[in-house]
Amino acid sequence: METDKVLLQAAQKMDKDAIVEIFELYNSPLYNYVLRLSGDRILADHIVGDVFAKLIEQLSLGKGPESNLRSYLYETAYHRLIDETRFTRRRAPLEAAAWIPQDRNSLFVSVEDEILFKQVLHIIRNRLTEDQRHVIVLRYLEEFSLRETATILGKRVEHVKVIQGRAIVALRKTLDYQNMRKLFSSPLVRNFTQSIGI
User: What is the per-residue pLDDT across 132-174, written as a single tens digit (0 to 9) for each?
Assistant: First the structure.
């Protein structure tokens, strides 16, 4: 967070190095976030480009974020994705392959873990509402706080809590624990499901 403040202060003065560093810091995470929700690599690339173009435009006008650069960038990406989804009138599916968190001690995730994790993501994609998917992605995969998630989604914290609770209840109802024992034996999937309380 301290790095964000320093970078933002420099970027507000249109410091080229700070803007480049912001891009390098957030380009990949924003791309992965949009890709997870859209499943479209070209769209993700365009939206991320639009996010940074808007940031530079706002900074050049003396506007833009005054604090919490990370939330501002994700909020902008979220709104661009919603606008694009409404414009094209297509459902924004999740990109399962981009969701697999890499173990810090290993460069490879086993094929079995990947397949099992995709099954959980399939359930999330098909059983949760759009708001519920966004909350789960932001809270548990992007690791935003309730307050940051509410800011990004333009909702009250209490509303995000309700959406989160309903999403977890829907996941619990959908997952058949008897038939999914093997799924939950995977450390990758077990860590994810434990983090969301199922």
Answer: 988 988 888 788 999 999 999 999 999 999 999 998 888 777 7
Backbone phi, psi, residue 71, to 5° = -60, -40
Q: pTM (2 decimals)?
A: 0.67
Which domains occur in the chain, in start order?
A: 2-88 (1.10.1740.10), 96-195 (1.10.10.10)
Report DSSP letters for the chain, one per residue.
-HHHHHHHHHHHTT-HHHHHHHHHHHHHHHHHHHHHHH--HHHHHHHHHHHHHHHHHHHHTT-S-SS-HHHHHHHHHHHHHHHHHHHHT------HHHH-PPPTT-S---HHHHHHHHHHHHHHHHHS-HHHHHHHIIIIIS---HHHHHHHHT--HHHHHHHHHHHHHHHHHHS-TTTTHHHHHSHHHHHHHHHTT-
